[in-house]
Amino acid sequence: MIQAAKELDLDLTKSYMVGDGVTDILAGDSAGTTTIFISARKCYICDELVRQNAKPTLIVTTLLEAVKDISSMERSIQVPRDHLVLSHCFNFMEGK
What we know:
By secondary structure, this protein is an alpha/beta fold. The chain has helices at residues 2-8, 22-31, 43-51, 63-74; strands at residues 16-19, 34-38, 58-60. A three-stranded parallel sheet has the order 1-2-3, with helices on both faces. The longest helix is centred in the C-terminal third of the chain and has 12 residues, at 63-74.
């Protein structure tokens, strides 16, 4: 991802990594992108994210939700509160 960004002259801090795996989120974090995790929010998935210290910027349940949220962020409109990471199982990460 980093090599492709250099070759294409892309600013990864203004880019998005959308994925359905923990490694997708870790790769996006490592590259400095905004990360969006597509998941059904199952407890075992949250456990694995916590175990690997993967903290996506957003969690959505469908690719369409991800597209809508990216569009909203690009237009500087508030992302729906229920899509924010700390609003669901990641309260566990913060000890809440």
